[in-house]
Each structure stands twice: as structure tokens, then as C-alpha cells.
Records
---
Amino acid sequence: MRYPLIISNWKANGSKTMIIDFIHKLQNNLNNNYACNIIIAPPIIYLDVIKQYLINKDIILGAQNVDIHISGSFTGEISANMLKDMGVLYTIIGHYERRIHHKENNEDIIKKFDILKKNHITPILCIGENKEEKIQNKTKTVCIQQINNIINTLGIEILKNSVIAYEPIWAIGSTSSANPNEVQTLHNFIRSYIAQQNIEIAETIHLLYGGSVNTNNAYELLRQKDIDGLLIGKASLDPKNLSEIIKITQKTKTRN
Ligand code: PGA
């Protein structure tokens, strides 16, 4: 049994006031038995504010990016060392918004994966196809290529205790998520692919889904055997929605 993960990706949203209000409301809305780990990935500048108000150990700090260097003359960058120093345990890498808007390439993503692992931070590797690739039935090929990008350079062992988030580009920030049954089929395929190289890693790796997750579609997604949690953007900016999704997770997946 894989312990479910619910990740809240705030992107470039929020303010000090909003965050304090959010954390209070989130913690008030929930009981102490979440049956999942909740990872809040705010804009880096607000990590410390969240930390000050956190009282529950099931809520964990996350980041949305990391630099490929550990220190030095890299103006504007944040290193894995610094994230670790701030108590960050998970970091999103390879998100399509960074690939598109910040021109991150496969080589950068490999370096980021590696530097996070070396600093004991769990990488959340985003993968997924664009609309055209979906129409051309290339989803599996594209996702496996993105995973192989890591495995071929860093070796299969690097995936131990890592997280892969399938985020079809066409579903991010749109009006509907991917079909839960199709996500299950893909996740099962990815797990089997990894199992061919290492069964233990395949059984323990977390495969998440992200892309227009909300309170209406969370249950159908979470009840799929190979969907081990959710990466949520817009809907998770509202503490009521996030609490609701966490409660759905509690009901759907059992604690082990
Ligand atoms: P969304 O974003 O839930 O707003 O679609 C998900 C993500 O980009 O991680």
C-alpha cells in the first residue's frame, strides 16, 4: 500500500495575508487522521510564513523548482541546500509551465532530479503529452521517453522513493481532467514498465495525477488502484476545496 500524497501547487499565487488565512482554515477543517500526506508548495518566499503557522505533522513543505547548482554566482536562483535548510521535503520538477515559459530542457530536469536526491529531497517529476500527441495516440511513448530521460542517465535506482506526476498538458488549467480510467491504464503501464527493471521500485513509487483536479472529479481519480495521489493547482488555492479533496482521499484510500 502506497501512502497517498496530495500536493497543492500554488504557482505564482498568494500573499502573506492569504497564506495565514489559508493555513488556519485548512487546519481547522481537518481532523488529525488525514490518511495522506499533504504537501503545500507555495511561492518560495512564503515558505517560512507557512512554517510559522503549521501545527500538524501531516502537512509538509514543498517547492515548485530548484536550481541545478548548489551555490555560487547564480543570481535569482534557489538551491537544494537552501530548500533543505527551510524544511522542504518535496520539489516539483519538469512542470510544463517551466518547460515552456522558462525553457527548461531534459538536461536541466536530469540535473535537478539528481541534485534533489543528493540532498534528500523527493523529486516530483512531471510528465505528460500535449494535445497533438494525445490525438496521435502517443501518450504512452511520450511518458516513457520522459521517464527514460531520467533512468538512462541516472539509473533505475534513482527512482526509489520518488514521485512521478502524470500531468497531460492539455488538462492543466482547463475545464476537465483526463478520463480516470485512461489515467489508470497509463499508470498501470508505467508501473509495469518500471517493474521490468526493478519490481520493488515499481511497487513503491508514487504515481500521481494532475490537471484540472477539483472536488467533483477527485473521487473517480482517487479510486483508481494506480493513482496514488493528486497534484492540484487552481482548486487547491481554496482551503475549503483542498480540505474536501483531502477528506475524499481519506474515504477512498486506507491508511497503512
Ligand atoms: P490545475 O494545475 O489543477 O490548475 O490544472 C495543475 C498543475 O499545473 O500542477
---
Amino acid sequence: MKALVKARGEVGLWAEERPVPEIGPEDVLIRVRKTGICGTDIHIWNWDDWARRTVPLGLITGHEFAGEIVAKGALVEGLEIGQRCSGEGHLIGKLSRQSRAGRFHLDPATRGIGVNEPGAFAEFLRLPAFNVVPLPDAIDDEIGAILDPLGNAVHTALSFDLVGEDVLITGAGPIGIMAAAVARHVGARHVVITDVNQARLDLAGQVADVVPVNVATQDLKEVYAGLKMVQGFDVGMEMSGNQAALDQMVENLVMGGKIAMLGIPPGKSPVDWSRIVFKAITIKGVYGREIFETWYKMIAMLENGLDVRKVITHRFKASDFATGFEVMRSGLSGKVVLDWT
Ligand code: ZN
């Protein structure tokens, strides 16, 4: 089969012929139809410090996918050949306290497909049946291929009650934009999304009914005063990993405000803790998706009118993957989807 492999310790990915994966008794074999390119894949492409420390050379990359089950192990129950599916890319252990309590997303022994284990940028993917998420007819393959990042957005957005709240999202990448759409869908009053990249802010405005703010040229306090907000935002979602953005969020939050943090700051960064303490702010770190509650909620919302399709701005044949990565690396795209059919 064809696969995109981190074949060499330098910038890039390489298309290679690989054997179709063998499956164990509790696995399924999935014929991949569509995949999404993630920021994580860009790190791997760029072969930055994190990628060098984490990703073994020779690995098939990719973790955002939709496809169809074409074979199943002897012990697999409840899934049939031909079932369309996506799936959770975190392969969890079953021994930790968290796993045994059903909090699978907090298992410290987690390994990721396309990061530590063979991934989805291939014609076929082996996946434990446990990780499979069947797709209803209402969710087509290209939306199925972005459920992984949508899951990050949903997990972040549902961290705190948003009904009637004013929400600030810093970082208008695809996940920030999808989180904004989710916040509106579940009943937030005002959703303001900030960035310094105007193309991304324009995309945010097309995907969801939100207020895009370019903090390079606009003053956030003036924006929220214009929205008749008195003290500031009730809930923040930090999606950029940018120190200045987090600072600005703390500055513009109400007393007792809440922050869900998905963006990853590079290295250690200075934080004004006294301000966080005196404002009585709650901060929650968000990792991955709740397995499988986030999947349940996002599929239910998609069936109930949540529309994030416009966040997909580019579609390429898998053989044109290099162009897809180029578009992603430009910082001017939304989600890029590759077609493996
Ligand atoms: Zn991803």
C-alpha cells in the first residue's frame, strides 16, 4: 500500500510502498478514504525539536482520518465489514487508575497513531476495535476526517458552561475557529476570536457567527465595550500557545473567570500569577478528547446543525500531499484534507 513516511531525519515526508498492516484478534483494518493534515503533522514534516524527540524514523504519519472497515479480528464484536468510521487516535493502556475509572483520555501510558505508532496517512490503517467510532450517514468522509481536531475544539469548548456567557478565543487556527462555532452552537452570547493573521480571522467570520479581532490593529477593550460587555469575558479558550495572547486573556477576563487552555506555549513562559490569584481565575489544561464522551457530543451536535465544513479550505489527492503541506505551512489555510480513494 501507499503511505506517507517520516523516512529521513530532515524536512519532509516521503511516499513509500508498505505492506498492508496485519491485524490482531481485537483490531480492525480500515481502508482510509480521507485524512486531515494537523499542526502535529507540520511539526513532524518540519522535523523540529519535539518531532526529533518523539517520532521514530520510518513511521507512517497521520492521525486524522475517515474510512471503512474491511477486515476484523476474531474477537471483534459489534462492528461489521463495510462500516464507515473514524476513530480515536490515542491508543490507551488499561492498567492505570484513570483508565480503570473510565477516564481513558487521562491515561499516562497513551500512545498516538501517526506520532508513536503507525498512522493514517496510508491506504490502510490497523486500529484496535475499541478506538473505532462508527459514522452516521449524516457525517460524510471529509467531516469524518476532521473529527479529531473538532474533538479538541469540542473538548475545550465544553470544559465550562457557555450558555449565555461571553467568550474570548485567542488563536484563529482551525481548532480555535471550530471552538468558536461550537461555543455559538451551545448558546454563548458573544464569541470574540483574536489573532494577528487576518486571513484566519476572515475564515473565522465565514465559518461561525463570531466577532473576529485583529489584535495587531484593534483594541480588545474597545471591542468588548462596543458589545456592551461591562467587565470583560466570562470564559477564555487559549488556542495559540502565545504568551502575549494568554496575558491579554487574563487581562480581559471577569473576576472569577475561567480559562480552558489547549495552546501549547513553547518552553517555560513567565506568568503573572498574582493577577490570576487576585482575579480568582480557574485554569484547565485540555489534552485530546474525552474518550468517548467528546465523540458522542460532537456527532450529536453535527447531527443537530453544527456546521464546520467551511473550515476545510483545501482538498487534494493524497498523491499531491506535498502541495497540501505547503498550503498548511503557509499559515493561510484552514483544514487541508487529502483524498486516498
Ligand atoms: Zn490532529
